[in-house]
Amino acid sequence: MLLKQLDNLINLSDLSIINNMRELTFSLEIGDYKRVIVISVAYFLVYNIISIFKLKRMIYLLNLTLLGSGGGMPMPDRFLSSMIIGYRGRKILIDCGEGTQVAMRKTHIGFKDIDIICITHFHGDHLFGLPGLLSTIGNSGRVEPITIIGPVGLASVVEGFLVAEPYLPYDINLIEEPKLDLGFSIPKNILQESKKSGCQEDEMIISTLALDHSSPCLGYSFYIPRRGKFLPEKAIEYGIPKENWSILQSGKPIIYKDNVYRPSQVLGKERRGIKLSYITDTRPIDEIVGFIAESDFFVCEGTYGDSADIEKAVERKHMTFKEAAELAGKGKVDKLLLTHFSPAMGDPNTYIKHAKAVFDNTIIGHDGYTEVLSYK
Ligand SMILES: [Zn+2]
Ligand SMILES: [Zn+2]
C-alpha cells in the first residue's frame, strides 16, 4: 500500500511533495521547530526513496517518438511516416519516410544507436528517407551491424539504395517477411527467432502481421515480457541459500549441490509486460484485432478523418479515424494514437470526434509526439 502511494508520488513535483508534507505536519499538534524538523526529515526520506523508485522504473521504460505523422507527401508542418522506440539505450526505427533524419535532428535523437529498422512497405512515404539515413548513420561512427526488417522484396529495394551508397562502415542484415517472432536481446544486441522458452526481461519480442494494402505491407508489435514475482517460500522449500536468490530472480539458472534450479521453479506466473503496436497502411482486417490485443499503446493510421470519406478509404486501402477507433475498441487497447494523415487533411483535431465516439482514449498524433510506457 505504502509502495503504491510512493509510486503515485513519483508523478508529483518536488514542490508539491513539500506542500503535502507541510499539510501533514499542520494536522499534528506539535510546535513550529518540531514541525520544521519533521518536514525536513520526511522530505529527505521521501525524496530519496522516490529517486530509487525513479531509477528502478527508468530501467523498464519504453519510450517512443512519432517523428512524422503524414502520409502521401511531406507537408511544411508534417513529416512523413516514421516512429522511433528507445529501450534500455537501444533504438528501433519504424518506417523511414522522406525527412526522417531532419525530424530526428529536431527531436534531438541520435543516429548511432539505431539497431533495427522496421519497414512496413515500399511506398515512398514510408521508405524514401532510408538511403539518406543509412548514410548519416555511417557518418555517426557506427560500425555494429544494423538489421532491416520488411516485406518480401526488401533485399532488392535495399540493394538498389546501396548502388548509390556502396561504402557503409557497417553490415546490413536483412529479414524479409519473418515467419516467426523475433527476440531482440537488448544488452547483447542480438536479434534472432524467439525461442519463447521462459520469460526474458532483457528481450523484446518483435512480431509482424501481413496487412491489406495496395502493396505487401507488415504491421509490427513490440512486447517486453515481465517475469512473475519471486516466491521465497519455494526457494526455501528447495533449500536454495539466500545468496543465490537474486540470480534466480534475474532469470538465470543456478547450480547448487549438483542440482540445477531454474527461475521457473521459484517465480510466480508471468506478469503483464509492455506492448506497443504499429499498424499502417491497411484496411481494418479482422486479424489486426488479435494482433494488437491488449496493447498498452496502439499507433494506427487514420488517413481520413471524416467518416464520409469511407469510399476513398476502401478504394485506396486505408482507414478512417472511425475504423481505427473500432479496431482499438475490439482489441481492448489502452490508448490509440492516430497518424498518417492525408495531405488533404488540414488540422486532424477537427475530426477527432469521429474516433472518440467509438474509442474515447484517442490522441491525434503530431510530429515530435512522445510517450513513455512502463510496467503497470
Ligand atoms: Zn503511406
Ligand atoms: Zn502505402
Number of helices: 12
Uncertain stretches of 5 or more adjacent residues: 1-13
Q: What is the name of the CATH topology of the largest domain?
A: Metallo-beta-lactamase, Chain A
The largest beta-sheet arranges its strands as: 8-7-9-10-13-14-15-16
**Structural class based on helices, strands and sheet pairing:** alpha/beta
Give the overall shape, derived from the CA principal axes: globular
Number of strands: 17
Q: Supply the CATH superfamily name of the largest domain.
A: Ribonuclease Z/Hydroxyacylglutathione hydrolase-like
Largest sheet data: 8 strands, mixed
Tell me what the CATH architecture of the largest domain is.
4-Layer Sandwich
| Mean model confidence by pLDDT | 87
Bound molecules: zinc ion
Quick structural gist:
With 376 residues, the chain is of the alpha/beta class.
Question: Would you mind describing this structure in some detail?
Answer:
It is a single chain. By secondary structure, the protein is α/β, with parallel strands linked by helices. The protein folds into 3 domains: 57 residues; 272 residues, Ribonuclease Z/Hydroxyacylglutathione hydrolase-like (Metallo-beta-lactamase, Chain A, 4-Layer Sandwich); 34 residues, no CATH class. Helix content is 31%, strand content 24%. Strands 8-7-9-10-13-14-15-16 form an 8-stranded mixed β-sheet. The protein has a 7-stranded mixed β-sheet with strand order 6-5-4-3-2-1-17. β7 and β8 form a beta hairpin. The chain starts with a helix and ends with a strand. The relative contact order is 0.11. One zinc ion (ZN) binds next to loops.
